[in-house]
Amino acid sequence: MAKSVNKVILLGNVGKEPEIKVLPSGQPVANFSIATSDRYKDQQGNFQDRTEWHNITAYGKLAEIVRDYVKKGNKLYVEGRLTTRSWDDKDSGKKVYRTEIVVADLSLLSGRGEEGGQSSGGYAQNRTSNTASFDQRPSGGDDYAHSTEITDDDIPF
Predict the structure, then answer these.
(1) Is the pTM of this model over 0.70?
(2) What is the tens place of the pLDDT at every residue in 33-83?
(3) Range of the domain at 116
(4) Residue 157 lies in a domain
(5) How many domains, in total, are found in the chain?
């Protein structure tokens, strides 16, 4: 069988507070949505924004991180895989489908107490274990970069 790839990368804003549940196995699961936007020109030449909403699901340690740190309006970077679940609706008996991104890697791009701000750190779940890691780079790194300006004389070519 030929190799295939199922990878999704999103950078967007959380639409509502994450919903946290616990599976019968005891594993936590977080469900929330992220909005991404595309800009295009309409027939009159005016720029228009088109917003797309994505269903996101995180399990285990990543669900706990979402529970503790992700809030409505936060900017997130999410890597994961696309999945589609189906079930029979209790009321109508019709089959219902839901396409979602199962999170493998998550970075919080909003700082503490700010919504839609800049980087504060990243979380990643190792695909072979159920552990999470925290990227502890200082969020004030941009201040240092702006204080050390490079001029044309500093470039060796």
Answers:
(1) no
(2) 999 999 988 999 999 999 999 999 999 999 999 999 999 999 999 999 999
(3) 8-37+47-149
(4) no
(5) 1
